[in-house]
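Hi, here's the filled form for the chain we discussed.

Project: internal
Contact: R.S.
Residues: 113
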Amino acid sequence: MYISVTGLKIKRTWLFPWHFFVFWRHAAPAYNQAQNADGNIKALAFSKNGYHHTITVWKDQDAMRAFIYEGAHMKAIGIFGKIATGKTIGFEAEKYPGRAKALEIWQQEGREY
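And the returned structure, exactly as it came back:
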């Protein structure tokens, strides 16, 4: 299976207070899309230490790739670089490592978004 972990922090400047609303306007539909995507086994969304995380578990990397470049998720990719910072990582695994281990891998090995 393929595990994808993303953690984004909304850029909050006094000049752009609407980033929060724009973020959630795109994040919620993208998460719903992930939950219903072909090949998705598990989708989690939660906040921790100021980051908004998603952990998705896919039957394989091809299923994840089919999801990321279409629909609401593609729109979110286009806007998030302007309003958020963070890291993402994807990796193969025999089984879902659990939330704590997935976040540890994200923290240590994730690449900047």
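Let me know if anything looks off before we file it.
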